[in-house]
Amino acid sequence: MKKTTITDIARKSGLSTATVDRALNDRGGVTAANRQRVFRAAKELGYLPTEGMLALPSRPAHLEFFIPFGHNSFMQDVARKIAAFASSLPLVASCNVTALDGIDPDALVMALEDLPLQTNGVGVITVDHPKTRHAIRRLCESGVRVVTIVTDVLSTPRSAFVGVDNLVAGRTAALIMGLMSRRATGSIGLFLGSRTLHGHQQREYGFRTLLEEQFKHLTILPAIETRDENKLSRPAMERMLRDTDDLVGVYCVGAGRAGIAEVLQAAGGNKRPFVIMHDLTDATRAWLAEDLIDVVIDQNARLIGEQVVIRLLGSIAASTPTLSLKNIEPRIIFRENIPLV
């Protein structure tokens, strides 16, 4: 029997070979509709991916996602993208997204107690904590594939991590901050969501190490943990503006962004520091356009949503539970290059 090729799939799906190649190799730049066309054509032709490509399960899979989106607009966007993409795929039998009650480890542990028996794959955004590590290990031991999203959970047999390299993201933020403040000696404000989130730990570490290596004229103020709450970031930003005469920059690692932006807007342009935030949302788009903030380092919620589903399906089909690591490339966004999506 003649082996099905990418050209055959392209012909059947009505798409280019380049688009088919990107879809099968789990790369970006492919719409959800086109990815669905590729997978449907590949399935109908009996295509078996070659080494380095993700296999697909032989039967539709049941997927569950646990995300602490609360008031975090980026997490909400990721949840929507996951649900939308999963619903477009014939190889997803069901997809449920559960909102966790905050980032406390017990929230995930309690939610997993009600996991449906038919579940094949689970995606989680959670803190790196003994309780969450134990919960993920138990899931994996039961045969359920697990993918961590945005922030990793170390020392677990999870199948994949989907997100940016957070250490690199933090170092990138430091490089931009240092270049923009090259001639100004002063202080940098640092806002964290929580150090229990491995991604936030990595961003902070990357930010600190590069500034200390290359921009010794800048001093990082004691980090402020906001638990992604605007009610905590708002008064902290007010105190920082009031008490720090040499404040030249602010780096917001996680959420709690609105509290910072509100204080900057109320203060006007007289004392505004150079501001770097993460994640492109409706709010950060507006703040960029209004010149309230300067740079957004974006993880691309759409691409995360698509790759989480694809890599869960790939891990379910794979003979080994762990897939090769493929980080999402962050987007560096200024007010002049704000993308449509």
How are the elements arranged and paired?
Layout: H1 6-13, H2 17-24, H3 32-44, E1 61-67, H4 73-87, E2 92-99, H5 105-112, E3 121-124, H6 130-141, E4 145-149, E5 160-162, H7 166-180, E6 186-192, H8 198-214, E7 218-220, E8 224-225, H9 230-243, E9 247-252, H10 257-267, E10 274-278, H11 282-289, E11 295-298, H12 301-317, E12 331-333
Order of helices and strands: HHHEHEHEHEEHEHEEHEHEHEHE
| CATH homology group of the largest domain | Response regulator
CATH class membership of the largest domain: Alpha Beta
Instruction: Give the tally of structural domains.
Output: 3
Structural class by secondary-structure content: alpha/beta
Low-confidence stretches: 48-52
The whole-number mean of residue pLDDT values reads: 89
Question: What Rg, in angstroms, do the CA atoms define?
Answer: 21 Å
At the fold tier of CATH, the topology name of the largest domain is Rossmann fold
CATH architectural label of the largest domain:
3-Layer(aba) Sandwich
User: What is the percentage of strand-forming residues?
Assistant: 15-25%
> What gap, in angstroms, lies between the N and C termini?
43 Å
Overall shape: globular
Helix count from the secondary structure assignment = 12
Number of strands: 12
Most strands sheet: 7 strands, mixed
Organism: Rhizobium leguminosarum bv. trifolii WSM2297
GO molecular function: DNA-binding transcription factor activity; transcription cis-regulatory region binding
Protein name: ABC-type sugar transport system, periplasmic component
Domain HTH lacI-type: 4-58
